[in-house]
């Protein structure tokens, strides 16, 4: 199969509208061609006038670990063009940076989750392009989490940098498709084009979204593999809790745990509460000791989520429900466990992080209500998921 960048590079016809134009590139470390050449180098080699580079959260170089660690602007040391950070002093492109190009190419590897901020950066670029009369091309890449959709819809008034619009946590779209949905949802008047992939099969084994012949490259420091991308729509909620999500280990966002829980008992409680929510994967209890971040230097009892191997069932796997069930089981076992972490999350200072992550308080309220059952959360969530699948349908390209 071919990614958007590869199709653009091999086709002079596709590149022709860019001739004589100033071209910007929004990219990160995973923005590479089939032979692992960085897209910036490959585009410059075609003779295109690449006049500026933009970087999303974690930067063009992907060097910054955590949330709210900002990247600076700088000058590219090889080509001398300006590199603008969209996760530094600003998160929306400024008029000054928008003046450096005519068309911006967006070549970002996403992981298929609303909270992964490249989705919001896409919206902000589209809005700025509409305002300044610029063109936006998305060089499309696979959604490694595939097509399934899961989670409650972000509520009105809960928009943030991790909540660009009324979509569920796991959206099941590519960035190219998402751009079409944004344009319709927010009534944007912008010159928009997707350089589509060729041969992407999001429902086909064994990759179910990710073509296994292509090496995985971290789009952000803690996105280490496809298992992480599959689990992320659930494990990202751990950022709003006192539980470790595995930052400071070699497998972040594929696990959860803490020094003061018993993972074996927790897994038993999860299967007792809602075994149907744990289908399609394998849970394994283990021990880990973070070298930085939450519980640094402490031995933690943990649950590892294996959305891989022979037991993996792509259609059955529900990472958002799985992680919600983990929280519910902790409430069952440990009562008033101090689960929710109160700290500023992605520049939102007046709401609990877990609520910002979920785009509303419903998930937290369900976890904290002793009378609430799994069926209650399903009743709240299933209509949102069905409505989203219907709303996205006209914009799917594959």
Automatic annotation (TrEMBL):
Gene3D superfamilies: 3.90.1150.140, Uncharacterised protein PF07075, DUF1343
Pfam families the UniProt entry points to: NamZ_C, NamZ_N
Residue intervals of the Peptidoglycan beta-N-acetylmuramidase NamZ C-terminal domain: 231-398
Listed name of the protein: Uncharacterized protein YbbC (DUF1343 family)
Positions in coiled-coil regions: none
Highest rank taxon of the organism: Bacteria
Domain Peptidoglycan beta-N-acetylmuramidase NamZ N-terminal, residue spans: 23-226
MF terms in GO: peptidoglycan beta-N-acetylmuramidase activity
